[in-house]
Write a structure and sequence with these properties.
binds iron/sulfur cluster, 19 strands, 466 residues, binds S-adenosylmethionine, three-stranded antiparallel beta sheet, 19 helices
Length: 466
């Protein structure tokens, strides 16, 4: 790595800014969801959403099964090798989709449709096909829709990829995390480079519009040398998109992460260096940085949208095809419908009980107030575009930006604060996050987070920002 990148952020600053903070896949974040919101609230919101019959929807399907637990994993998963367990779940998932369609009799267009997990390709080809047919039996997928799936190369067959292509999936996201055998050993995920290559090359042959690879930096035993080698393999593959996630280490929430040997984790400065290595190599190779942790080739629609500041972000990640409402089905899935979040239960037994009673398995949620909507717009735009247009917020919400955010602007401009550190510039048109500031975009957004302000001294909830 060049000296210039290493020198970008002084160690003192790194220590100051490296603290627990949200990744802002939503605002307010999921920790604000409560059980005051239940399935009757969700039904009422669906009725409102149904009235917007011409508007497209986003649909997220959560398939939670994996055969074995990777020790780094932060996702909602069910670990089992028993296929009858997942077959039973799928029966109920079909019922949930029927129930959803019943409540959306007029709202049937999808512009964004994702299968995530867990591992969606844990399911057999015939189960996958039946699920897709269940969805398309009710919903129409726009011809230019984003139809995406997360695949784990260790369990995905070429036959499954053929099927997905035939069903109309156009975006594949492959979990890799790290190619280094020692790192894989330390995270309980053994995945050979050759099996990943084989699957990747088959995706290319089938001509999927976009192939993404997920990597994580900050894992045990990663070093500048190993991570640089990793990036060389990646650049040889040259996926359209890359997610380079900061390792979210939250052992107080995810018990499986207690198996990680903390003495093997890189220091905050070591972790930042790993990201800088990836960033430098990817930028040199012609990739464009998208938001906080994504990169895309210039021809990819995400890169084009980032250039025009048309990017959106929701629980499924960065997108240009976001519907004005998002519905989620499956265990722990989150929906975002008419100004409210609704999250499904995380236990199979509760999921079955609710659906048996003809109820949506919604367990908790949140109704956004006016202030939440303003702050959500601010935070989302910063996360997506590193830019905030003062006029757009003022016109959109009928507020005086400087008066409304006087405390926040003062905090940004405070001595030894983000403006002085060169992370943010505030000017007549709004706010811009600088190249260095991008590394700390979560910290910049945290200034605008009303809930975090109220919780500042509380115990840790979120992973660290670096
Ligand atoms: C649902 S998961 C993975 C899909 C599939 N099961 C697999 O492992 O390939 C989607 C992505 O989330 C990311 N992820 C999971 N746990 C994480 C954590 N604790 N910190 C950061 N990223 C994480 C990984 O990069 C993973 O590929
Ligand atoms: S990383 Fe993927 S395969 Fe591993 S436990 Fe998490 S969801 Fe399952």
């Amino acid at each position: 790595m060049s000296e210039s990148h290493r020198a970008e952020v002084a160690l003192g600053l790194l220590r100051k800014y490296d603290r627990p903070g949200p990744r802002y896949t939503s605002y307010p974040t999921a920790v604000e969801f409560t059980e005051d919101y239940g399935e009757l609230d969700y039904r009422a919101r669906l009725a409102q959403a149904d009235a917007l019959s011409d508007e497209p929807l986003s649909l997220y399907v959560h398939l939670p099964f994996c055969e074995e637990r990777c020790s780094f994993c932060g996702c909602h998963v069910v670990i089992t090798k028993k296929r009858d367990v997942s077959a039973r779940f799928l029966d109920y998932l079909h019922r949930e989709i029927d129930l959803l369609a019943e409540h959306l009799p007029h709202r049937r267009r999808l512009s964004q449709y994702h299968w995530g997990g867990g591992t969606p390709t844990y399911q057999t080809p015939s189960e996958m096909e039946a699920l897709h047919r269940k969805v398309t039996g009710h919903f129409r997928i726009d011809s230019d829709a984003e139809v995406a799936i997360e695949v784990d190369p260790r369990v995905t067959s070429l036959e499954q990829l053929d099927l997905l292509e035939g069903l109309g999936f156009n975006r594949i996201s492959m979990g890799v995390q790290d190619f280094t055998p020692e790192v894989q050993e330390a995270i309980n995920r053994n995945q050979t480079e050759s099996e990943t290559r084989k699957l990747y090359e088959h995706c290319r042959k089938l001509g999927f519009e976009s192939v993404n690879i997920d990597l994580i930096y900050g894992l045990p035993l990663q070093s500048p040398g190993t991570f640089s080698d990793n990036m060389d393999v990646i650049l040889d593959l040259r996926p359209d998109r890359l997610a380079v996630y900061s390792y979210a280490y939250v052992p107080w929430i995810k018990a499986n992460q207690r198996r990680i040997d903390t003495s093997q984790l890189p220091s905050p400065e070591g972790k930042l260096e790993l990201f800088c290595i990836a960033r430098e190599k990817l930028l040199d190779a012609g990739y464009v940085q998208i938001g906080m942790d994504h990169f895309a080739l210039p021809g990819d629609e995400l890169a084009r949208a980032a250039g025009d500041r048309r990017l959106h972000r929701n629980f499924m990640g960065y997108t240009v095809k976001m519907g004005s409402d998002m519905v989620g089905v499956g265990l722990s899935a989150i929906g975002d419908v008419r100004g409210s979040f609704a999250q499904n239960c995380k236990k199979l037994s509760t999921y079955y009980r609710d659906l048996d009673a003809g109820r949506f398995p919604v367990e908790r949620g949140y109704v956004l107030d006016d202030d939440d909507k303003i702050r959500r717009a601010v935070i989302t735009r910063l996360m997506c575009n590193f830019h905030l247009d003062r006029r757009e917020i003022e016109d959109g919400f009928g507020i005086d930006f400087d008066a409304y955010f006087a405390t926040e602007l003062e905090e940004l401009r405070a001595p030894a604060g983000p403006v002085e550190h060169g992370f943010v510039s505030i000017h007549g048109d709004g706010l811009d996050v600088t190249e260095n500031g991008r590394l700390f975009i979560r910290n910049v957004c945290m200034v605008f987070d009303r809930y975090l302000r109220a919780k500042r001294d509380d115990k840790p909830i979120f992973s660290r920002t670096v």
